[in-house]
UniProtKB/TrEMBL annotation:
High-level lineage: Eukaryota, Metazoa, Chordata, Craniata, Vertebrata
Domain of life: Eukaryota
Record's subcellular location: Cytoplasm, Cytosol; Nucleus
Reaction catalyzed: N(6)-methyl-L-lysyl(20)-[histone H4] + S-adenosyl-L-methionine = N(6),N(6)-dimethyl-L-lysyl(20)-[histone H4] + S-adenosyl-L-homocysteine + H(+); L-lysyl-[protein] + S-adenosyl-L-methionine = N(6)-methyl-L-lysyl-[protein] + S-adenosyl-L-homocysteine + H(+); L-lysyl(4)-[histone H3] + S-adenosyl-L-methionine = N(6)-methyl-L-lysyl(4)-[histone H3] + S-adenosyl-L-homocysteine + H(+); L-lysyl(20)-[histone H4] + S-adenosyl-L-methionine = N(6)-methyl-L-lysyl(20)-[histone H4] + S-adenosyl-L-homocysteine + H(+)
Alphabetized UniProt keyword annotations: Cytoplasm, Inflammatory response, Methyltransferase, Nucleus, S-adenosyl-L-methionine, Signal, Transferase
Molecular-function GO term, any one: histone H3K4 monomethyltransferase activity
PANTHER family: SET DOMAIN-CONTAINING PROTEIN 4, UNCHARACTERIZED PUTATIVE METHYLTRANSFERASE
CDD domains: SET_SETD4 (cd19177)
Gene3D superfamilies documented for this protein: Rubisco LSMT, substrate-binding domain, set domain protein methyltransferase, domain 1
Protein name: SET domain-containing protein 4
Natural source organism: Leptonychotes weddellii (Weddell seal)
Length: 441
């Protein structure tokens, strides 16, 4: 068997080779010791690390690069079930007896979060220390941001961020009695160990890093979905919206497997995709934004949808009711390719004249009613787009001003990037709308 020293030497060699072929990859020295330690942890804990991977440290964080080209459908990684950190791991641990006797049963999420906080508190005594040390010390999910920063979010995201904060606060409050029962395990007061900040860190760790794996229902856990699994080695694979992968737990092999759909060239970083999420969803769930995200969009709420329509339209309430009944009042967006079909369809229905109203079903089926209706809907779309452009520019000026006054540069830069990306989308949409209106001029 390879010694720890030899594996460390292999890790250093791998890092050096990664840099040699990385075409500008930057070695972030403070991460080096933790990364090599994690490499050792991974090597001895995971028997299925494929030889065509090299561990490398990028300027933007840790990542993996391939020693060989990866074909479409080729396995990227296969992690045995025993390597996953799940509620089964927690129940087999020193926490298991306390979980088993607690009533009402704690949730799977609370069990995992409690274990993470407890293991982090154990420090050098924790077998999971190498994994815990490469996790972020703090997260940038909205619940972790200052209220004045969240107030700068686009309205749809701000509402979801407030829901997230309320959900986490409820999670913390409901954990107090169970946490108190764990006092015999610790010499320090459990209130200080399982503080709000500690449980917030654990909640964000699970929320941003857990993969979906179904587990059998345990009587000692509540009936809430038990589908969380932390897979430490996967933390080295970064997200890109431009790649496609297939990821799932294989019931036959009892491994969590990821296969590439789009392939990967030799000596390029290997990416996975968390899903076709827009930037607001990425920020809400994972705490980051993807520049030039092809799935990015700007959402149009109901109040903005009707903002430039005549208030004298007696059929407006009926039109809105039809849109709601047929699920056309939400998911209305501007994207890189202009206004979405759903947005234009909703506007076409709202722009129907009184004598055209009976044709509303044809609108929802994608039929053209009249040139007048087409022109009016495009004009309204242009006005909405221009409204968003002006609002976005105003928010960017406000963020820029706050960066000069408030010591929240990193958080404000995150919001600034979100608004900047939305501005680019709106500008692209405005150009497309201008071209679409040419035939009607």
């Amino acid at each position: 068997m390879l010694t720890v020293q030899l594996v460390k030497l292999l890790a250093v060699t791998a890092l050096a080779e990664a840099l040699a072929h990385g075409q500008g990859l930057v070695l972030d020295l403070p991460y080096l010791e933790d990364t090599i330690g994690f490499f050792v942890f991974s090597f001895f804990g995971y028997r299925r690390i494929y030889p065509f991977f090299l561990l490398c440290v990028l300027g933007t964080g840790r990542g993996l690069m391939s020693k060989t080209s990866l074909r479409e459908g080729q396995m990227i990684i296969s992690l045995p079930e025993s390597c996953l950190l799940t509620t089964d791991t927690v129940i087999r641990s020193y926490l298991g007896a306390y979980i088993a006797k607690w009533q009402p049963p704690p949730s799977p999420l609370l069990a995992l979060c409690t274990f993470l906080v407890s293991e982090k508190h154990a420090g050098d005594q924790s077998l999971w220390k190498p994994y815990l040390e490469i996790l972020p010390k703090a997260y940038t999910c909205p619940v972790c941001l200052e209220p004045e920063v969240v107030n700068l979010f686009p309205k749809p995201l701000k509402a979801k961020a407030e829901e997230q904060r309320a959900r986490v606060q409820e999670f913390f409050s409901s954990s107090r009695d169970f946490v108190s029962s764990l006092q015999p395990l610790f010499s320090e007061a459990v209130e200080s160990i399982f503080s709000y900040s500690a449980l917030l860190w654990a909640w964000c760790t699970v929320n941003t890093r857990a993969v979906y794996v179904e587990h059998r229902q345990r009587q000692c856990l509540s009936a809430e979905p038990n589908t969380y699994a932390l897979a430490p080695y996967l933390d080295l694979l970064n997200h890109s919206p431009h790649v496609q992968v297939k990821a799932a737990f294989n019931e036959e092999t009892h491994c969590y497997e990821i296969r590439t759909v789009s392939g990967c060239r030799k000596h390029e970083q290997v990416f996975i995709c968390y899903g076709p999420h827009d930037n607001q969803r990425l920020l809400l769930e994972y705490g980051f934004i993807s520049v030039q995200n092809p799935h990015a969009c700007v959402h149009v709420s109901e109040d903005i949808l009707v903002k430039y329509l005549p208030s004298t339209d007696k059929q407006m309430n009926k039109k809105i009711s039809i849109l709601k009944d047929h699920d056309f009042i939400e998911n209305l967006t501007f994207g890189w390719d202009g206004p979405s079909w759903r947005l234009l369809t909703a506007l076409k229905l709202l722009c129907l004249e009184a004598e055209e109203f009976t044709c509303w079903k044809k609108i929802l089926l994608g039929e053209i009613i009249s040139d007048t209706n087409e022109k009016r809907s495009l004009v309204i779309a242009q006005k909405i787009c221009q409204y968003f452009i002006e609002e976005t520019n105003a928010m960017l000026r406000k963020v820029s001003h706050m960066k000069d006054e408030v010591a929240l540069i990193n958080q404000l830069t995150l919001v600034e990037t979100l608004w900047t990306e939305e501005l680019k989308i709106l500008q692209a949409s405005a150009e497309i709308l201008n071209r679409l209106q040419t035939p009607f001029r």
